[in-house]
TrEMBL record, chains A, B, C, D:
Any matching Pfam family: Beta_elim_lyase
Organism: Eubacterium ramulus ATCC 29099
Keyword Lyase part of the UniProt annotation: yes
Cofactor: pyridoxal 5'-phosphate
Protein name, as recorded: Beta-eliminating lyase
Example of a GO biological process term: amino acid metabolic process
Ranges of residues in domain Aromatic amino acid beta-eliminating lyase/threonine aldolase: 4-290
Molecular function terms, GO-annotated: lyase activity
Family: Belongs to the threonine aldolase family.
The entry's keywords: Lyase, Pyridoxal phosphate
Taxonomic lineage of the native organism: Bacteria, Bacillati, Bacillota, Clostridia, Eubacteriales
Amino acid sequence: MIYFRSDYSQGAHPKVMDALVKTNFEHTDGYGLDEHCEHAARMVQDLIDNHDCHVHMMVGGTPCNVTTIAASLKPYESVVSVRGGHAYFHETGAVEGTGHRIVTMEGANGKLTPEMIDQAWEEYEDEHTPIPKFCYISQPTEIGTIYSKAEMTALSKKCKAHNMLLYVDGARLGCALTCRDNDLTIQELATLCDAFYIGGTKNGALFGEALVILNDTMNDHFRWMIKRQCGLLAKGRLIGVQFEALLEGGMDSIYFSMASHANEMAALLRDSLTELGVPFFGSSQTNQIFPVLPTAVVKELEKDFFFYEWAPEKNGMIPIRLVTAWGTTKDDVEAFLRTIKKLLS
Amino acid sequence: MIYFRSDYSQGAHPKVMDALVKTNFEHTDGYGLDEHCEHAARMVQDLIDNHDCHVHMMVGGTPCNVTTIAASLKPYESVVSVRGGHAYFHETGAVEGTGHRIVTMEGANGKLTPEMIDQAWEEYEDEHTPIPKFCYISQPTEIGTIYSKAEMTALSKKCKAHNMLLYVDGARLGCALTCRDNDLTIQELATLCDAFYIGGTKNGALFGEALVILNDTMNDHFRWMIKRQCGLLAKGRLIGVQFEALLEGGMDSIYFSMASHANEMAALLRDSLTELGVPFFGSSQTNQIFPVLPTAVVKELEKDFFFYEWAPEKNGMIPIRLVTAWGTTKDDVEAFLRTIKKLLS
Amino acid sequence: MIYFRSDYSQGAHPKVMDALVKTNFEHTDGYGLDEHCEHAARMVQDLIDNHDCHVHMMVGGTPCNVTTIAASLKPYESVVSVRGGHAYFHETGAVEGTGHRIVTMEGANGKLTPEMIDQAWEEYEDEHTPIPKFCYISQPTEIGTIYSKAEMTALSKKCKAHNMLLYVDGARLGCALTCRDNDLTIQELATLCDAFYIGGTKNGALFGEALVILNDTMNDHFRWMIKRQCGLLAKGRLIGVQFEALLEGGMDSIYFSMASHANEMAALLRDSLTELGVPFFGSSQTNQIFPVLPTAVVKELEKDFFFYEWAPEKNGMIPIRLVTAWGTTKDDVEAFLRTIKKLLS
Amino acid sequence: MIYFRSDYSQGAHPKVMDALVKTNFEHTDGYGLDEHCEHAARMVQDLIDNHDCHVHMMVGGTPCNVTTIAASLKPYESVVSVRGGHAYFHETGAVEGTGHRIVTMEGANGKLTPEMIDQAWEEYEDEHTPIPKFCYISQPTEIGTIYSKAEMTALSKKCKAHNMLLYVDGARLGCALTCRDNDLTIQELATLCDAFYIGGTKNGALFGEALVILNDTMNDHFRWMIKRQCGLLAKGRLIGVQFEALLEGGMDSIYFSMASHANEMAALLRDSLTELGVPFFGSSQTNQIFPVLPTAVVKELEKDFFFYEWAPEKNGMIPIRLVTAWGTTKDDVEAFLRTIKKLLS
């Protein structure tokens, strides 16, 4: 069975494992108050060229999203997101669990636009309506598209105009930054939003994300919030150690080469399938692609490959999701292409 | 200044006030554990011809909605509602404040359809998504339309098919039951849904709603829930006393004659404005109407009449909301019609 | 049956009812945005001689406590209260329902002391513990005792030293202010705390409390919070109208004469029972007293009088609670004393 | 610097690291739906000789406590715990963050007694008070003491009598089970409580706990609850793999030998310090001890050893906490004893 199921089906990049093994017997203080976390935070600051920001080593993506939202909002304030956004679509109402509404908008190719923010404000009235305060987006989006520099700048401006916070879920940020269409650097991103995270789980870590808070008001007693939201890891250094390994070398680190590799494998799949005349759901630019295939083909493929059916069958066709990762090999891709060519012919 | 602002701009119907004055010096136990509340509950049971249901005297509509939702749902379960539903649109995120998502659907003439419930389920996947469990509708809707017997029956069936609870916000239930298009009796309603309330605040009470819970599972420790949600009135009998006065005589009570009067006043406005060629937003069948008028006309009207602008100006036109109530007089209506005739000519 | 059950067993003082009847047919805007609420708020400001504070007309005491706490605290901040405090003991965990802990201390004669606040801080450590931020007390306390000016000043100082907010639940504030032992004026109180409320429900209103917020930071978007906590009354003016009637004449208003009368009736009971050698639980100074009586006597009394048994029987004795109110008559008291004299002899 | 700071200052036992490295390149499904988690769950079931229970691989102890509480309770139900209990004392109000009160009792040598549960019920009244439903204890307690079989049985019986759930926080369960005073097997424990967890973080895992739910009603949609509480790890298998390594061999596994070693090191410290005449805070029976030392001695010790001061100085003495773990060596202990002998002489 070959996996295109997700970018978290394997363990960690060998360099990450090595770092964990190498530091295993060190004694350090707990809960992220150790030198590895401190060092990794400085590496993140160096990477984005901003040494005033706050960096927290977090266990996972949902804890990043939910803790930041709960820390940033007053009870009567709400989040704006596309309906397909991860925090709305795949986190079991964890945000609402902290008492905050997510106001949903139909995404435009997976993306939120400044007009959608205006629409959220048109729905706002007075003390009878929650106040839209927190703009949640992902880079790349849940369907693999990316915000261009112009789009991100426009969103940033619109948020500022409404006194809103702009938050970027970077579960797959590496893939956005290294995809061929990207024109937005991580340094630029860090000037346009109020907080974002650099995802480790989906890019070669065992687990862990580096949450970057650029807006001081969102960072008030943030560690209290992490603990209250059950996300403070006792052996917090594990995340620091992993990010030290992931980010060593900055833009030349394995963090970026792994993401780049994942993008290349996805591009190979995308280009080859396109040549075969396969249509796609959405126009992903990164490591997730959504070919739409005849049901019979999908069922055959499932014998040898493991992936998600992305939506129910419609007119005899099923959109599937193929995800590539640092561990995806050219052999995996070629095996898939060989099989599908046979099935489609 | 003549008020078409809301159906809660005056105090109570004189018979309600008389009942409060008459019982004022009685001593009773607090928190709704008195004979007036008990008696009013029996009157409600008689009215709907069901003596197994649970009736709670509640302070207001938002407490009814929020307490029932919080009492009925597990943390991972969600509410389905049209986006214009009161619990979503005008309650400042109180439902999310109890930890539950409201999944919104664009209403069809203000109404939720069985297809929308199916759509909510299509968005459901597994442990990564909240489970749609509670269907929230209003009868009449926020824009004055009503569910026919066939529509309500179809919704009820669909909810049962999905093991969902059907809840009917009856803030203006009297107006639904007495409007000329209605074919659904309160007894029938009580067999089709799991809970609903008979609104007092917007139909001649000082305040108070009679919440009817037909599904035993939703009633478990309900008084604990009312208290925890801050809604247990110390002098709870005040609501009982009011409902005794409102419902005396059953279908011939002032509860229904007041609602009927409000509908008639709205119909008079609607018919006359239609004759004048005024277009409407939505197709209200009850005591709220939404004529769309030139901005200049609206601004002139606002000198003598008090009402809401319902949405921002578009192409020089503004939809306004006119609400009639038990206290609206034919003189009020005629004054409005005289003025608008002048303005439009 | 004669009631010493509570101070909310009757309706409202006749002047309050008259005001409601007199204004009944007025049309006003809803949700407390009317002239009666505005006027009542100014009367409160005049009374406490502070025109910069914020006054909100609230439906009840629990909504005052819970909304103020939820509006004032960040998620990781907690409340400190005596274990017998109403917000802990009699509100079904409504405070915790908003996500905040109440740190409890055994009261000293029902009261919180500066030492207890220090103790709450001794239990505080770092990001693993919630931060004590909100000091909740009642004046008078749940067992009828009052804070002297010196005690309230010491608490206020201690709160300031810890950067905590001091909140005073004034459900029975009238009785504290008018009792013979009191040396703390309402004007002084308003300089010592950050927020308090003037209770109407338990002192002659149908319902309603005037919440006074002296600390601007606690008032941010407070009306949004009231709505989100389900406490914004549609016909909000009802509370304004009642407080206009209650407070007319300031310190000479019925608000104070009613409370004073309740205290006198309680004093008459207390003094007479003391003469009879009856011991008391606590040393109440206001309108609630807690005589401890032989079980057999209690059971006999319950045939003619309605009151709470305050705690379970111990050694053949039961402490009961007798509450007097504006509507308690000298006849009621004398009837009780006559009966108990017989029973004890 | 030698660490007696905590039992989570190092990484994992080498066998755990080996298992992670060995399985690193496997592809598996995410979120704990893999064969390692399944296998580890069966190993847990074998260990406790109960194959009907539910086992969840959790990220940490706070997620175990909070998710189980949130999953088990209705909004108006509360938790009973000693004030020093971890869920109250060291989790930043995370439980209250889910809306539930923790009713605190002063512990008896760190333990909850049946009498304390009765006391919680004495404070219960009716719809104005939350219902005590969930009994939270730790084995061993926060101060290292353990419940004997008789004590645990009595608690279990008392909980059943009150229809309450008994939950055992087993962050250090290994140390309880292997300490010399213990007479309660894990199989017996599993028949006396409704849920408990086998802690990995503090006994040789990188992170992770195996939560065992014995009472079906608490397990309803539990995975939805884990996700909603932000605790569902993408690479969930990491916890399964670790528990496979920890529990291989059952009662002869490294899980128990590590705990036993930690206890021995603590016993060596305890016995030697006792010989030196050092008094202790509490009477720990497991791997945490609390000697009370002169302030000057403590300050000297802090130059070479890393540990917590457990409480503020009083009368020139400070209680400190010394924690031993699987990685504590006899050399560490002897170094400490040598130093303190010098300082005390």
